[in-house]
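U., I forgot to send this yesterday:
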Amino acid sequence: MMTGLLDPPGFAPTGRAMEIEGVDLWTMRDGRIARYRAFYDMNEVARQLGIAPASGSRAERAMVWLQRVQARLMRRRRR
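Result:
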């Protein structure tokens, strides 16, 4: 159950269950951690928490349409 802040990206608690899959990359130097990077599918987490619309839903298609309109407008401004 998500009972606390998920930061980053700053999602507020929703009380919903979630499952996070990801990859952790560790770079070691002289027996110590020199660099640590974690990669997770935050879009899937947002879907599980009810923050983003379900995949294939009408709401998701509307969001994609709006993003395409925005991209088109941005390209026109750059000309």
